[in-house]
Amino acid sequence: MHIHILGICGTFMGSMAVLAKELGHHVTGSDANVYPPMSTQLEAQGIELTQGYDPSQLDPAPDLVVIGNAMSRGNPAVEYVLNKGLPYVSGPQWLADHVLQGRWVLAVAGTHGKTTTSSMLAWVLEHAGMSPGFLIGGVPQNFSVSARLGDTPFFVIEADEYDSAFFDKRSKFVHYRPRTAILNNLEFDHADIFPDLPAIERQFHHLVRTIPSEGLVIHPTTEPALQRVIDMGCWTPVQTTGAGGQWQVKLHSEDGSKFEVMFEGVSQGVVEWDMTGQHNVANALATLAAARHVGVVPSMGIAALSAFKSVKRRMEKVAEVRGITIYDDFAHHPTAIATTLDGLRKRIGDAPLIAIIEPRSNSMKLGAHRDGLPESVVDADQVIWYAPANLGWDLAGTAALCTVPSIVSDSLEGIIERVKSQAQPGTHVVIMSNGGFGGLHGKLAEALK
């Protein structure tokens, strides 16, 4: 079957394309922005990519068009599909029908940490010899691919609350029907499609409604929004993580790189790994709880986590030039920015730390998170905010509220010059964006030489 995917370079759609190819379909796709790591992964899989949405890419007509949720009415390719009556479906629906049917689905939902936690979970199952299938919104370095079918019943999926398509406004995750569900945390996000936090809580409740009574829901004790979701109705056993929960930790190092895992008051072993930050410790606890549900004993899970290599673009060290270390990170919400910088600060001590932040997500562009931004960067020594031309709010006003030195730049060249003038050997530079950021990482590394 020839499947053409509109919006193929999104992390979800690109991963779905890999699965369709593995099932034996002829897969092509198009996107407005074709950039790594998804574009390189797709090309390596032999999937043909087209830049832009000219209707000519749909002639001759494919057997099925999968329409990504970034596509809207008015898009020339979408209009062509509708006018010609071509068969079309959303990505989550296609996945539910052709991949997830009959599988033991382990879903990871939440505002933050979905990609990292689903990568951890897939790796723990892999390490235990369970060869899971997975679909992850990033490229886990233990696998070097973001999706695969797997040849056992187990399938790990990053379960996103974003909508499914322009014709299906339900959250993607209601299609997945998990048996094991991690609910990591819940804050207001996606201001382009949700009016407020209760609207997102309602979608999470819809997810909880689909989990069988023989399944398992895992969530931290510290998230009031998730407790409200459970209180709306839950027909499934629940395990909790963190303070007062069944799963707890004793930190052996402040930066989270070494900690002891406790289940129901009994030590299960010690994780010692390359990750930092309290958020990753929390992700690990949820992972161990989910893996135990499918039969992986905690000691085996702990051994796997100690060999976990994180995900591309999650505090990924991309260069070290003249003693200056450059990291690429996906953080695009104040909480994620704060926890990421906190983890790095605890690892590097008093070393100089420069954060470069692009407010690129839809919620950021709408200004939904701007009040939380000044507080999110307190662990940096200085911050460079990138103001793209289409930002609809006063970034300079927000930068002025920061307690650490902050400047706003409207060009990559300006950012590079600033870092060149400030960074000394021993400085750590974190570039935070959920997009390609114009290739800043490579350009900065080159300029620092």
TrEMBL record:
Report domain Mur ligase central positions. 108-291
Name the EC number(s).
6.3.2.45
All copies of domain Mur ligase N-terminal catalytic, residue ranges: 2-99
UniProt cross-references to Pfam families, sorted A to Z: Mur_ligase (PF01225), Mur_ligase_C (PF02875), Mur_ligase_M (PF08245)
What keywords were assigned to this record?
A: ATP-binding, Cell cycle, Cell division, Cell shape, Cell wall biogenesis/degradation, Ligase, Magnesium, Nucleotide-binding, Peptidoglycan synthesis
Which residues does ATP bind? Answer: 110-116
Pathway of action: Cell wall biogenesis; peptidoglycan recycling
Q: What name goes with this protein?
A: UDP-N-acetylmuramate--L-alanyl-gamma-D-glutamyl-meso-2,6-diaminoheptandioate ligase
Q: Which organism is it from?
A: Pseudomonas reinekei
